Amino acid sequence: MKKLTTSILLALFSATIFTPTHVEASWLSKTWKKVEKSWNEAGKQNSSTRTSGSSASTIRLPQRSEYPSRYPSGQEIGHHLGGAERSIAGVYPNATYEEIRRILGAPTEEVHHEYRRDGEQRAFMRYGGITYSSIYGQIERAGVIEVTNRDATTYRGIAVGDSLEKVYEAYGRPVRIYDDNTWFYGVFIWQSDFVYGIQFINDGEKVTKIRVL
Known about the structure:
This protein has three helices and eleven strands, in the order αββαβββββαββββ. It has helices spanning 2-56, 97-104, 164-171, and strands spanning 76-78, 95-96, 109-115, 121-127, 130-133, 141-142, 144-147, 176-177, 183-189, 195-202, 207-212. It is globular. Residues 1-32 and 42-56 have low confidence and may be disordered.
């Protein structure tokens, strides 16, 4: 009887010692494979994120220092924007105030024949964040359009508040970058009033005002 009891105890001891070891090893093996799989999937996601992130940040914006400080006198620089490129809310620069009213209706604010301190007359019509103003004393026409908020976009969909990266994607490299970092697209003649195009005034990161000439 004593021998039988001892045999049973030894059998139980063996089962306690050896069997869990085999089960534990099997569980670890399966679990480790799951861990490796999750790591691999996480690694692929991180790699994908890094790739997409790096591709998004590969846009190198042009700098003012890359442009000449002077241009040939009398020569047209840049290219004319065609079609509706220079229109804002369906109105082109140099439209008469009668035409603007006919297209957009009654303005938020308007001023005509006001004399400035320099003696030049001025006039403008404002529609929310869009202002159509006279320049060079031509008070019957709005020679410049300015947008100061998101009430309107350019023909290519750029609005105040958009990033310079978005401007670059829509318009490409600016024809000129002014000393204050304003981006210009269009055509101009150095040191003259001959300027036709779009200016994107910015704070170095985002567009703060759009001016169409």
